[in-house]
Structure formats: C-alpha cells, structure tokens
Amino acid sequence: MSSKFWAELSSDYEKLFETELGYDVIIYAGEEQNVKEIHAHSNILCIRSQYFRSAFSNEWAEKKDGKYILRKSNISPHLFNIILRFIYCGNIELKNLQGPEILKLLIAVDELNIQQLISYIQEYLIENKTEFLHQNPTGILEAVYQHESFTDLWNFCLKKICEDPKILFDSDEFINLKAPLLELLIKRDDLSMEEIEIWEGLLKWCFTQQNMINDPTKWSKEDITRIERLLHRFIPLIRFYNIKPADFFYKVYCYKEILPQGLIHDLLEFHIVPNIKPKPNVAPSRMPKLDSTLIDSNHIPLFASWIDKKDSSYNKNDVPYEFKLLYRSDRDGFNATSFHENCDNKGATIWIAKIQGTTQLVGGYNPLDWSGNGAWKSTTDSFLFYFTDEKNISSAKISYVNANNAQYAIYCNSDRGIHMGNFYSDGATDWRFYNSSNSVCDSAYPKIGIPKDFVVENYEVFQVIKK
Questions:
Q1: Range of 36's domain?
Q2: CB neighbours (10 Å) of residue 369?
Q3: pLDDT for 134-151, tens place per residue?
Q4: Is the pTM of this model over 0.70?
Q5: Residue 311 backbone dihedrals phi, psi, to 5 degrees
Q6: Of 33, 63, 91, which residue constitutes the final position of a domain?
Q7: Which are the contacts of 421, defined by CB distance < 8 A and separation ≥ 6?
Q8: Can you give the residue ranges of the TLDc domain (predicted)?
Q9: Which of 14, 147, 246, 336 has fewest C-beta within 10 Å?
Q10: For a pLDDT cut of 90, what percent of the chain falls above it?
Q11: pLDDT at 4 over 70
C-alpha cells in the first residue's frame, strides 16, 4: 500500500514539473541555436542537489523579476530535461539514449552533484552500452579521466582496453591520446599486447606528436633531441627484455640514437651473451591474457596461493605458475569423452564451473592427472573451492582434502568428468554430491556450502604449469 502512495507522490511531482505551476527558476540550457528556456522550482532543486543550493545562494544568484536565472550552455535541453525529471520524481529512462549521449549525461549530473545518478549511470553504461567504447576510445578515456567520481567507469574502460588493446591502439584517434593517459596504459602489467606492438604503437604516437617521419637516417640532431625528450617518460615502462631477438634487431636497435646507450648495451649483452639475466630494477613481464570466460586475472594469484598452501595471496607479478586452457565445455563438447581427450595425461589441473542462473562458481584442483579407468588416486594436495559471487574473490571458500581420507581424493574413469571424493559429474550438465556406501569417501572434503546438486552452465579446465 505504501508503494502506491509513493507512486502517486512521484506522479504529482512529475505533473508539477510539466505544468510549471508556481515556477521561480528559469534555466537557459544549450548553446547558440539550440538554447531552450526551462522552468523549475528552486526549493525542489535545492533539496535534491548541493550544486543548486550554491547556485541560488546570494553570492551566485542572478535574479530577474523575482525569478532565478541559470545559464547552462554546456548541457543540452534534452539532457537537462532528463535530469530535472529525475530530480522531481525519481524516474530516469536511459534505454533510448546512445552511449555518447549517456556519457554526456553522466558528465552533466557530475557537474550538478547528483550523486545517485553518478553511480547509476556508470553501472548502466557498463552493463548495457559497452560497444560505445569502440566508437571513440580516446575521447571516452579522456572524458572519464577528467572526473574523479567516475571510478567504476574508469576501471571498466581500463580493464576492457587492457584485455583488448586494439580497441585503442588500432583506432584512428590513438595518435591524439594525451601523454599522461598513454603513460598510464603502458605502465599496466595487464596490458594484453606483445611488447613489440606496444613499442611500435608508442613510436607511431611519438612521431605524430612531433610531426616527424619514421626514418632515423633522415633525422637531424634537433629531431633526435625532441624524440628523446618525448620518449623519456615511457622508456622505463617498455619491457624490452620481453622483445624477441629478431624484433629487437630490426625494430628496436635501429632506433639506438634515441634510446639510452646504457640500455642498448644491456640489451645487446642479454641477446648475445649466453645465460645473461635481465638487469635488476626493470619493469616486470606483463601478465599474459587469461583465456577464460569464467574468471579473470584477479583469480590467478589466489589459485596459486591455494596450490602452495600460502596464508596470503601472491602478488600478480609473483605467481609461480602458468594456467593454460585445456578444455572449455561450450567449445569442446559437454561430455566425458571430450573432457578426457583434452585433459588426460596433462598433469596438474584446476577446473572452474559456473552454476546456471547464478553468480556462483565451483572448482577444484587435481595435482595429479585425469587419466585412468575406475581408479582412485591418493593425494593430500587437492582441494575444492566455491565463490558465491564470481566477481568478488573475497567470497571464496576452500576445502582441502582430509589427510586421513586422501585415498579418495581423485577418481578417474572414462565415463566420468570431474570426480573428487563424493562430488562428481558424468561429463554433462548435472553435477552433484552423492551418498556413497563409504563414509570415508563422503567426508573426503569438508563441506563449504557448495549446493548438493546443480546444473552447470559452462566449465573450464586449466593445466597448471610451474614456471
């Protein structure tokens, strides 16, 4: 019943906005030929936004014939109407707006200090308008970078570009990217791009900034000095030791005039002299892109720490394992045969399954292998794990095999998929804990809240390789 009253109240305030009854604010929104006069009520605006409380104070206020005058040439009439409708009745509709318009709306509500909408619009963009990042990645990055309150959208854009750098590096506007933004991107360890491609992209950007041709044989001393100055902030961020010898010779060494001579000496030594290691205090290797639709790079340090039974998680740069995708059910076939064809005789593996219709992930670690026909395998290092929220690694729970029941840690059979203790799948979508006649088997892994039976939407198996 109370919800009905709230709906009526919202409707009445919307009518007040539309009829303009008793308005005392005139807003001129838009610029030049697109200026429109909009009417509103100062009391409502002040209650809903600190910006308007300041705007209508004695210090700021412009008044004419008893009405406040506000001029906002940087906000279109259409967007201002959307904002005012939200202020009056708490309703907002974004589905008819394109990504660039929604971004402009977000910038406007940030200026007007409407906190609820700042969070809501960011979430809407992330969930519904991800394609807009491809349209103008440079402009979007720069717009978001300028607003400290757009944290969620900023992190999303960076993550997307790091996962697929070609969104930015292959765009026509990449050469116009501001230097601080390019520096921030190249600094990231999760930029999923070959190091030589990053170097070539940096050079392309640099030569465009200086309006120079990419031909060292035609550079003057002044040209070299200009390039050195522009590149100076970026050189420590390039992982030169991860560039292959042939690429180093043909695509890096030819630019030796604009690189620190000490760096050139160290790289030549590294490539020519056997068993020479990279110099200390250089940027670490970037993290390889994780080939997964279920987890991201944030899960990997946690998995590695569980494997090594560490009390705290590894740092991303210190993970001592590689995780190589062996099997994905929706790609390779959702059956036991496909599972064994891809995963048998591969040594240690970790598997992750998504429970259908939820945000929950179930998984486990097998330090042995999956080959065998009707055989139990003993280990004290295997474990099961459970995420109640796939995006929140702090929601994880882990269950190491009971040392006294280690003989029932892993079961391998050609007609089964995952089988650990009394938890198993037949290779298809129905997974469960079963009640066996052996109580030792049933208690091989302590309970951590994994549902007794569930349907799996998709699952992946990764080979765990010691670096």
A1: 1-91
A2: 17
A3: 888 998 999 999 999 999
A4: no
A5: -75, -30
A6: 91
A7: 384, 401, 405, 408, 409, 441, 442, 443, 444, 445
A8: 293-465
A9: 246
A10: 69
A11: no
